[in-house]
Amino acid sequence: MAHQDYVSRASNKKNNPYKGKADQQNSAMPLKVKFIGLVTLAAIAGFSYFLWSIKDQKAEPVNVPVANTRVAASSKTALPEPPKEKWAYRKELESKEIEVGQYEVKEGGPYKMQCGSFRTRKQAEVLKANIAFTGLESFIRKATGTSSDWYQVRLGPYARKRLAEKDKHKLKSNSVNGCQISNWQ
User: Fold this and answer.
1) DSSP states along the chain
2) How far apart are CA 142 and CA 106, in angstroms?
3) I need a labelling partner for 37 at 20 to 30 A (CA). Which of 21, 86, 92, 152 fits?
4) Whether the predicted pLDDT of 71 surpasses 50
5) What is the pLDDT of residues 148-171, one digit of tens each?
6) In this model, does residue 38 exceed pLDDT 90?
């Protein structure tokens, strides 16, 4: 079987079976595009003529009348009089006294963060290792329940709640979710 020559076949545009008559008609530039191009070209030409026509004109000096001028002793230049104050709030603010409220900052005490509670120590060790990979140090506390022992994974103590929140967000960004912050007991 002989090989077909697709390259020479594609160069023949009249007998191209892959293009219909609609594709050949759309290859011409539409009238709308031609009109927009003509308007743009006319606008550029008009603006260029405007700039060319004003290039040789000289600017006329503007005379501004200066009233109530005073002459400075050192520079001998005319300075206008300073404006009169319209508002009186500047003088009122100078003599105004500010009342300062008294308040006390209450310390909530030390805080702890608990990230999990498991029935087996092995599960608690796995969570402790995941927390260690984030750069934080945790510990496991054994709590005795009514039916069995629980192993709690905790972090802390924190002096301020903001520090505990910071570590909680760090753990959350490293896929350690479910940590709860509470007062140290």
Assistant:
1) -PPP-HHHHHH-STT-TTS-HHHHHHTSPPHHHHHHHHHHHHHHHHHHHHHHHHTTPPPPPPP----SEEE-TTT--EEEPPPPP---HHHHHHH---------PPP---EEEEEEEESSHHHHHHHHHHHHHTT---EEEEEE-SSSEEEEEEEEEESSHHHHHHHHHHHHHTT----EEEE--
2) 32
3) 21
4) no
5) 999 999 999 998 899 999 999 999
6) yes
Separation CA 109–CA 161 (nearest Å): 9
Alpha-carbon torsion angle 86, 92, 94, 98, nearest 10: -140
Strand pairing of 111-118 and 139-144? unpaired
| Contact between residue 152 and residue 113 where contact means Cβ atoms under 8 Å apart | no
Q: How far apart are CA 11 and CA 18, in angstroms?
A: 12
Residue 178 identity (one-letter amino acid): G
